[in-house]
Inverse folding.
């Protein structure tokens, strides 16, 4: 029986490499490819594949967002997550029997994945995604843990405390660091899920601040706040994020 596969990755070289590797398997065929989350969802629903190789960090919607929606389909495909950076995701996949591939892709790992894939159960997707979210939101990263941002085909490593704040502008996230601004194609919810809630606080639907860079908080109009950073930058809070600012002020526990 032929395994029908969809490949999802925003980098053409990565899709090309997977395409080449999968081509070595006579019982597997690629029925479609997608470069972003929305396209992936549409393609999966149109083709009903048996298996999806799904990059975690995608423009539009993250791979985790796609997986959650796919899990609700009547006949969800098995999913192999592809990641270059997320140690929490890797641990969750190991615990929940969903598979993963680490970048740079390795033919040996792919071979082992393909051999095991017939033993995987689609309902493992739901448990895996839930565990990933719990791990990312609840785990306290080690002091030397670094964030990884995909920028123009490169993976840029940044020490968390070097990130001052993050702003959503259009379809891009502008990550303001000590070294300059990184323009990242990732959803705000996906990016927020990779940050420690003890350090990074979402104060507006389009803004996250690093509490270690906050100099003071000022009362603003209509109950909002102006958050002044040590660099002199002013970030305004959103009305629906008042509780987050109160947490920043230690009025309420995290």
């Amino acid at each position: 029986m032929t395994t029908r596969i969809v490949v999802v990755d925003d980098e053409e070289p990565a899709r090309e490499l997977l395409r080449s590797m999968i081509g070595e398997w006579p019982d597997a065929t690629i029925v479609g490819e997608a470069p972003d989350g929305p396209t992936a969802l549409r393609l999966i629903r149109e083709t009903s594949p048996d298996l999806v190789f799904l990059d975690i960090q995608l423009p539009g919607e993250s791979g985790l967002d796609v997986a959650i929606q796919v899990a609700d389909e009547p006949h969800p495909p098995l999913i192999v997550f592809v990641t270059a950076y997320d140690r929490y995701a890797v641990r969750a996949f190991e615990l929940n029997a969903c598979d993963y591939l680490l970048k740079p892709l390795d033919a040996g790992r792919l071979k082992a994945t393909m051999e095991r894939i017939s033993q995987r159960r689609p309902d493992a997707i739901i448990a895996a995604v839930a565990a990933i979210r719990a791990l990312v939101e609840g785990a306290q990263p080690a002091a030397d843990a670094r964030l990884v941002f995909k920028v123009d085909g490169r993976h840029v490593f940044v020490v968390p405390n070097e990130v001052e704040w993050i702003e959503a502008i259009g379809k891009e996230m502008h990550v303001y660091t000590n070294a300059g601004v990184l323009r990242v194609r990732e959803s705000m919810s996906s990016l927020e899920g990779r940050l420690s809630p003890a350090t990074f606080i979402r104060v507006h639907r389009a803004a996250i601040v690093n509490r270690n860079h906050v100099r003071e908080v000022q009362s603003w109009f209509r109950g909002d706040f102006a958050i002044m950073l040590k660099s002199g930058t002013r970030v305004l809070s959103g009305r629906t994020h008042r509780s987050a600012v109160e947490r920043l002020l230690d009025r309420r526990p995290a």
The longest strand covers residues 28-34. Residues 124-138 form the longest helix (15 residues).
